[in-house]
Design goal:
- This protein is of the alpha+beta class.
- Among the domains are: about 30-105, Carboxypeptidase-like, regulatory domain (Immunoglobulin-like, Sandwich), CATH 2.60.40.1120; about 130-215, no CATH class.
- It is built from four helices and 13 strands.
- The strands form four sheets. Strands 1, 4, 7 and 8 form a four-stranded mixed sheet that branches.
């Protein structure tokens, strides 16, 4: 390849590069830039608010400073939607001209359909200070490291329990091993030996032969292995 051919090729590449740069510059001048900030009704910036141009399908989210910026917006009039969680979205028709930078700030109002405040009411229930009569450890109930099951009167009523065996069926560690012809029931319970067992406030026999207590529950009207005794 001679020198003239090399010069011709270099000239052609230079001319094509020049045309590409000119076209790119013209294309950039035809597009617009859209930027701004998003605030709430107290003039505080909203981080993560969405600014979306509906017809073009392009948009941006606000940064930590509340700023957004959308580049390469063609000339024309478009619907801009600004939204944020917990606030009412706004829509605005905005016209963009060729090669201009349009800066607009938006202010969003809280959504009235969202509850601003929730109040929770409840009643305080007193708990015993210590459970050493049951657990042999002078700790409160919420400090115990062992499992304690409570059978409430509500659970008994919901399950329709008619016997003691039915009532304690959902309590882990309690087992009925004899019914004596369905006239009385005898239960075993896991735990320490010699747990105080009372019947209407009077301590009755307990079994010291195993890991639990053994007693006759026939015709029982009130029993609770916790001192002091309370009527169910």
């Amino acid at each position: 390849m001679d020198t003239q051919s090399l010069i011709a090729i270099k000239t052609l590449f230079f001319f094509l590069g020049f045309l590409f740069i000119v076209n790119l510059s013209v294309f950039a001048q035809q597009n617009s830039t859209f930027k701004g900030k998003v605030y709430d009704n107290n003039n505080r910036i909203l981080v993560g608010a969405t600014v979306f141009i509906e017809q073009l399908g392009i948009g941006d989210d606000t940064d930590w400073d509340g700023n957004f910026e959308i580049d390469r917006v063609p000339a024309g009039q478009y619907k801009v939607v600004v939204s944020y969680v917990g606030f009412e979205s706004i829509e605005r028709e905005i016209e963009f001209q060729e090669g201009m930078t349009k800066e607009i700030n938006f202010r969003l109002l809280p959504d009235r359909n969202i509850l601003s405040e929730i109040e929770v009411f409840g009643a305080r229930r007193e708990r015993p200070e210590k459970m050493d009569a049951l657990t042999r450890i002078p700790l409160r109930l919420d400090e115990q490291v062992q499992s304690i099951s409570v059978i409430s009167h509500k659970m008994i009523a919901e399950q329709g329990a008619l016997t003691l065996n039915d009532a304690v069926r959902n309590a882990p560690g309690l087992t009925t091993f004899a019914t004596y012809g369905n006239t009385s029931e005898s239960l075993t319970s896991r735990g320490y030996r010699g747990i105080p067992v009372v019947k209407n406030g009077v301590r009755i026999h307990s079994d010291f032969r195993g890991q639990g207590f053994l007693t006759d529950w026939k015709w029982i009207t009130c029993t609770i292995p916790v001192l002091p005794t309370r009527e169910l």
